[in-house]
Design a protein that fits this description.
Helix content: 40-55%
Domain Transposase Tc1-like: 91-162
CATH class of the largest domain: Alpha Beta
Oligomer: single chain
Protein name: HTH_Tnp_Tc3_2 domain-containing protein
CATH architecture of the largest domain: 2-Layer Sandwich
Main location: nucleus
Pfam families: HTH_Tnp_Tc3_2
GO molecular function: DNA binding
Number of helices: 15
Shape: elongated
């Protein structure tokens, strides 16, 4: 029998083969591995023994030995695999198309980079090329549109106030109004769930008709104290805003800052209306011409309960937080200048 006749050689061949490091991966056939297989067969090892020693199938061993005989003993390097469908020039065109317009989809890029003399790359291939270059698909940040005129005004304002310190920002009144939902959120909620469990109750986001209601509040603060928090019923128009300025903001400002306060407000239409502007002229209050405190994860059954939660959170804001915000004004101004008037992370 052939197996019995090769027994004396098997002892030698097994010792030689055992010294060879077993390669990792099912398709790993380096030049050294191929040479070792051929050498083991020359020492008399049966292909099935070689297959066991190298962790390969017998067909793979037979194929390597056959290729060795056909090539007169020359061991060739293993093929690197399927050739790329895109050339280096096409890869550059893919990156250029994405950088010119980051909102282009893989389908749009596929159409723009395809030429008659080259194969059409798959959309998945285009996405892989972009990912390798560090261009991953992400949800863009939503910021208010800023026109060219307003960008210039923002940069000019930031340059004028870049060198201001705590002394310059003293006696300024900062104001803002915000809406808080009684149920859910206006933003995007993310969950992590197993495959096939999309409609499981624990992975659903409950909703109610008409949004579940909300509470609108207005508040202000200065460098010395937190102002009052005012709940707004109904729609806030110029008349409601003027009433807040007259009966809420002005008494608090007179008691805490005297007559030297400078008021800050955003450019909401009701803030800049002629009706409100006339009130500032009559009261001889200077205008500076933005801080938010979020209350996440706390639900309320009605508007009064929600306002009580907001008022408690508002009163819990320490002056350290306010001072930190005021101290960050130089960084905020510099960020506006660096962004050339476009919205920043603040």
């Amino acid at each position: 029998m052939p197996v019995q006749r090769s027994l004396p050689l098997l002892a030698v061949s097994c010792e030689s083969i055992s010294a060879i490091v077993k390669p990792f991966g099912k398709k790993t056939f380096t030049v050294d591995v191929r040479k070792s297989i051929v050498r083991g067969h020359e020492l008399g090892a049966h292909p099935k023994i070689l297959a066991t020693q190298f962790g390969r199938s017998s067909n793979q061993i037979y194929r390597i030995l056959k290729n060795n005989r056909d090539d007169d003993g020359v061991v060739h390097r293993q093929s690197p695999g399927r050739p790329r469908t895109t050339s280096r020039a096409m890869d550059r065109n893919i990156l250029r198309a994405c950088r010119e317009d980051p909102r282009r989809t893989s389908t749009d890029i596929q159409v723009s980079v395809t030429s008659p003399n080259e194969p059409v790359p798959l959309r998945r291939t285009i996405r892989r090329r972009l990912q390798v270059a560090g261009l991953h698909g992400r949800r863009p940040v939503k910021k208010q549109l800023v026109s060219l005129k307003n960008r210039k005004a923002r940069v000019e304002w930031a340059k004028q106030h870049l060198s201001w310190g705590p002394r310059e920002w003293a006696n300024h009144i900062w104001s803002d109004e915000s809406k808080f939902n009684l149920f859910g959120t206006d933003g995007i909620q993310w969950i992590r769930r197993p495959i096939g469990s999309r409609y499981a109750p624990q992975y659903q986001c409950p909703t109610v008709k008409h949004g579940g209601g909300s509470v609108m509040v207005w508040g202000c603060f200065s460098d010395t104290s937190m102002g009052l928090l005012k709940i707004i019923f109904g729609t806030m128009d110029r008349y409601v805003y003027e009433d807040i300025l007259e009966n809420t903001m002005r008494p608090w400002a007179r008691a805490n800052l005297g007559r030297s306060g400078v008021f800050q407000q955003d450019n909401d239409p009701k803030h800049t209306s002629g009706y409100v502007a006339n009130w500032f002229r009559r009261r001889r209050m200077d205008l500076l011409g933005w801080p938010k405190r979020r209350l996440k994860g706390v639900r309320a059954s009605n508007a009064n309960q929600k306002f009580a939660q907001l008022e408690a959170a508002w009163k819990s804001i320490s002056m350290t937080v306010v001072q930190t915000i005021l101290d960050s004004m130089p960084r905020r101004c510099q960020a506006v200048i660096d962004a050339k008037g476009y919205p920043t992370k603040y």
